[in-house]
Specification:
Blueprint lengths: L2 E5 L4 H12 L3 E6 L6 H7 L3 E5 L5 H15 L4 E4 L5 E2 L7 H28 L3 E6 L12 H21 L4 E8 L6 H4 L1 E2 L11 H6 L14 H13 L6 E4 L1 H20 L1 H6 L11
Parallel strand pairs: 1-2, 1-4, 2-3, 4-6, 5-8, 6-7, 7-9
Length: 283
């Protein structure tokens, strides 16, 4: 029996993972804003479900919840940082409060969770940490600038954090799904564009629901995504990143290929700015 700590378990991947893990006999420390939403699972699985109320933007309380989970459950094998949401709106039209909440929830909270669990994972000799990111951590769509900011930001944090903590047996994986048939857009904070200057643009149309992908056309299966995340959490040597979905694979592959081609085209000017007495290692 393995023990998992998961944030954002009221719905989506977090709820799916919690159900699947309990069904196979594992223990889950599930955190969410309203723990009564897991009453049905508690009735079926008893003390293998540990619940705590948590708003991930409350850093002080999150540290207390993390400390309590490790103290009461002992070893926690896998931490899944899953809480987050989407923000849709043109950069110019979003409010300061919307921007702050997006960064607080999707960037600051995962960083603070990683910081809170690190001493515990190090003390027990390691563990796996899965961070829900997105194919949007590599690519970007108009009207989602702040959402992409949050995903690109958390990818940068884990790129460095992974190297810092691997000597302690802590392995991190950025989970990068594509479009999955969940209520992501239904739960998103959406600001329809009202500025006349943007009328008729692709970005403005998207904020009004035009040209959006209907749920039935999204390739990702939520249960299969949750199952894949569990498989990754079970690995002794998980990958640093894992794309999930054919769309995620294709779009990110194309974007990285184009970015590499662009970098190659910049070689001559890049090298021209070196000191005259410097010899590049590759030369």
């Amino acid at each position: 029996m393995r023990t998992w700590f998961i944030t954002g378990t009221s719905s989506g991947f977090g709820r799916q993972m919690t159900e699947l893990l309990l069904e196979r006999g594992d223990r889950v420390a599930a955190t969410l804003r309203n723990p009564v939403r897991l009453d049905d699972l508690a009735a079926r699985h008893g003390d293998r479900l540990w619940r705590a109320e948590l708003d991930v933007t409350d850093t002080a309380h999150m540290r207390k919840v993390v400390d309590s989970a490790f103290a009461e459950l002992g070893r926690i094998d896998v931490v899944v940082s899953n809480a987050g949401y989407g923000l849709i709106g043109l950069a110019e039209e979003l409010t300061d409060e919307q921007i702050q909440r997006q960064i607080d929830t999707n960037v600051i909270a995962p960083i603070q969770l990683a910081r809170a669990v690190t001493p515990h994972l190090r003390a027990q000799g390691g563990g796996n940490l899965l961070q829900t990111s997105s194919m949007g951590g590599h690519i970007a769509f108009p009207a989602m600038s702040l959402y992409h900011t949050s995903k690109w930001g958390i990818e940068g944090f884990f790129e460095a954090y992974a190297v810092e903590t691997e000597p302690f047996g802590i392995h991190t994986t950025l989970i990068e799904p594509g479009m999955v048939a969940t209520d992501f857009y239904g739960a998103a904070d959406i600001t329809p564009s009202t500025l006349p200057a943007y009328a008729g643009t692709q970005a403005a149309d998207f904020t009004h629901g035009k040209n959006s992908v209907p749920l039935e056309a999204m390739p990702g299966d939520p249960r299969k995504v949750a199952e894949a995340m569990i498989r990754i959490g079970d690995l002794k040597e998980p990958p640093r990143r894992q794309l999930l979905g054919s769309d995620a694979y294709s779009l990110v592959h194309d974007a990285l290929t184009a970015r590499l081609e662009s970098a190659e085209a910049q070689r001559e000017i890049a090298f021209s700015t070196d000191r005259d007495d410097f010899t590049p290692p590759s030369e």
